Amino acid sequence: MIGVQTQKRSMLQGLVHRLSSPLHTLGRRNGLWYLLSRALERGSGGRVRLIRYLLVAQPLPEGPPARALRDPGVTVREAGHGDPLLQHLPHPAAVIRGRFAQGARCLAVVRGADPMAFLWWTEGPYEEDEVRCRFEPAPEGEAVWDFDVYVFPRHRFGTAFARLWGEAGARLRQRGYRASCSRISAFNAASVASHRRLGARVTGMRTFLVLGPLQVSWGRGRPGFHVSLRDAARPRVRVPSRAV
């Protein structure tokens, strides 16, 4: 009997930890949204998704830090459509084609033929590929939209990201841009923390509830609330850089 009580107590403690951990790492509000998201996904067998984004803006760096330039074997170059480097990304070919079709560009950090990290951006509106939404960095001509920064696991504790972000910032500043806007998952504490270290500021929030073809979204600014049933009916969300 004592053994059963101990097991029940252990299970209860484990449940309390699983429920309280997101509240601690994400904050009460986003932690509760995360728990709701997990409950909906599990209860529906993956048919219902709840996605919540923080919309952020951060200043573009003027170049990579000196420590990121010490490896002479590392180079940074743009990867265009059809570049073999892109085959290393964990995305379907159709997603990559769609990005280039809307004018997105990709920068890669490589050592020889070994890719270390990738970063994508658009110098204008971005058609999100995870949900139906058109994000518009503002003001036009001063802010870009960056997305899908991917650093290969074996390079995440080195200087690959610093080199990538610094080189991207230097190139974009030469073209007159001063800030970059992006969206990050409100449920990814590590990503939120890393963006804050780069000087990012939250300028908005957007939540999406997806059930099959039905998508409902809401957030700060316009449109405050949006419902769509087809790909062409996307909310247009302006993301201000606030002249960061």
TrEMBL record:
Cited SUPFAM superfamilies: Acyl-CoA N-acyltransferases (Nat) (SSF55729)
Which InterPro entries does the UniProt entry name for this protein? Answer: Acyl_CoA_acyltransferase
Q: Which domain of life is it from?
A: Bacteria
| This protein's name | N-acetyltransferase domain-containing protein
Q: Which organism is it from?
A: Ectothiorhodospira mobilis
